[in-house]
Design brief:
alpha/beta; Alpha-Beta Plaits; 2 domains; 6 strands; about 10% strand
Length: about 350
C-alpha cells in the first residue's frame, strides 16, 4: 500500500467530525456569553441600541439550539454542508458584532484568526480554506465600513497580514503532520498484515488460523476443517527448483481460496480451510470442488497439482481446537496412505 493512498475510513471521519461539531457548539455558546456580558456593561458607550446589539447573539444562540437538535437526531445528514454553513455564520456574525461594538471589536480580532486555524485543524482542507477566505473578505469589509478600524488602519492592516500569513503557515504544518501520521498508520497496518499473513502466498498464516479457529468454536455453529497437504511437492521442488516450487504454492493457495475464502497456509505445503456448511451433501460438494479445482492443469502442462485432504467436523467429530486439528490431520494422513489425491472424512477413518 502506498502511504499517499492511505485514507481514514469514511465512518471514522464522520464520527470525528460529529465530535468536533459538538465542541464548536460549546465554543460558540462561550463566545455568545462573552458578547452578551460585554454588550450589557458597555452599551452606554456604544452607538447602537441594545436591541440591535443583541440581534447577533440571539441569532447565534437560536442557530446553535437548532444545530444541536440536528446533531442529536440527524447526526450524519448533510454533515459537510452544515459544517460549511456554520463556518460562514461564525465568521460573518462575529464580524457583524465587531462592527456593532466599535472599539470593543478589537478584543474579538483574535477570534477570527482562531476560526481559520480551528477549522483547518478539525475538518478538511476545503473547509479550512473556506474559513480562511471568508475571514479575509469579511475583514476587508469591516475595515471599509467600521469607523473604529478606519481610524486605526495600521492596526487593522496588521491583523489582515496575520489573517493572510499565519493560517497558511499553519495549514502547511498540518499537512506535514498528517502526511507523517498517514505513513505511521500505513506501516502499522503493513506490520499487522505481515504478522497475520503468509509472506509467500499472501493468504492468512498459522497465527491467524489459530485465532480464528478459536472464534469459530466459540461461536458454536457447525463447520468443517479441511487439512490439505500437496502431493509430491518435494519431487516438484527437486526436479524444477525452489522458484517453481514457490509458484506452485502460490497457485495452490489461489485455487483453494477460490473455493473456500478462509484458507490458511500452515507452512511448507500444508494448508487448512474453515467452512460453515448446512448439510452433508453440501460438505461433499465442497470437498469435490476442492479436489477438482486443485487438480486442474497448470499453464505449462508439465506440473499437475494434487493434494490429500482430511476433513473433521465441528461439533460431530470434535469440540475443541486441539481435537479438531488432530482429527483433520489423521483423516489427511489416511488419504495419503490410501494413494493420495483424494479426501477422507474423519468419521471414515475413526
Amino acid at each position: 500500500m502506498n502511504p499517499k493512498n492511505y485514507k481514514i475510513p469514511h465512518d471514522l471521519l464522520a464520527q470525528e467530525y460529529l465530535k468536533n461539531e459538538k465542541i464548536q457548539i460549546f465554543i460558540r455558546l462561550v463566545f455568545i456569553a462573552i458578547a452578551v456580558v460585554s454588550i450589557y456593561y458597555y452599551q452606554e458607550h456604544l452607538a447602537h441600541s441594545f436591541t440591535a446589539l443583541m440581534l447577533a447573539p440571539i441569532t447565534v444562540f437560536t442557530y446553535n439550539v437548532l444545530y444541536l437538535f440536528v446533531v442529536k437526531h440527524f447526526p450524519y445528514v448533510l454533515q459537510k454542508q452544515r459544517i460549511v454553513l456554520s463556518v460562514l455564520m461564525d465568521i460573518i456574525l462575529t464580524v457583524y458584532v465587531m462592527y456593532l461594538v466599535d472599539a470593543l471589536g478589537a478584543y474579538y480580532a483574535g477570534a477570527l484568526l482562531w476560526f481559520s486555524v480551528a477549522y483547518g485543524m478539525r475538518y478538511t482542507k476545503a473547509i479550512a480554506y473556506t474559513a480562511y477566505i471568508t475571514v479575509i473578505l469579511s475583514w476587508l469589509v469591516l475595515m471599509s465600513v467600521s469607523s473604529f478600524w478606519k481610524d486605526n488602519s495600521s492596526f487593522a492592516i496588521g491583523w489582515l497580514l496575520a489573517y493572510i500569513v499565519l493560517p497558511l503557515y499553519y495549514f502547511r504544518l498540518v499537512d506535514k503532520l498528517r502526511s507523517h501520521l498517514e505513513i505511521v498508520q500505513h506501516y502499522a497496518q503493513e506490520s499487522e498484515h505481515k504478522a497475520s499473513h503468509d509472506q509467500l502466498t499472501g493468504i492468512s498464516n498459522r497465527a491467524l488460523f489459530e485465532e480464528e479457529l478459536k472464534k469459530y468454536i466459540q461461536l458454536g455453529d457447525k463447520f468443517a476443517l479441511f487439512f490439505i497437504d500437496l502431493d509430491a511437492f518435494k519431487e516438484i521442488n527437486d526436479q524444477y527448483g525452489h522458484d517453481v516450487g514457490d509458484r506452485v504454492l502460490i497457485e495452490a493457495s489461489k485455487r483453494l481460496q477460490n473455493i473456500i475464502e478462509n484458507t490458511y497456509r500452515l507452512g511448507g505445503d500444508e494448508f487448512v480451510c474453515i467452512k460453515h456448511y448446512k448439510n452433508e451433501n453440501e460438505l461433499q460438494n465442497i470437498a469435490k470442488n476442492l479436489m477438482f479445482n486443485l487438480t486442474m492443469p497448470c499453464k505449462d502442462g508439465k506440473i499437475i497439482l494434487a493434494g490429500s485432504i482430511g476433513i473433521a467436523r465441528f461439533p460431530e467429530d470434535a469440540t475443541t481446537e486441539f481435537d479438531i486439528k488432530k482429527r483433520a490431520d489423521l483423516a489427511m494422513y489416511a488419504a495419503k496412505q490410501a494413494g493420495k489425491n483424494r479426501y477422507y472424512f474423519y468419521a471414515e477413518v475413526a
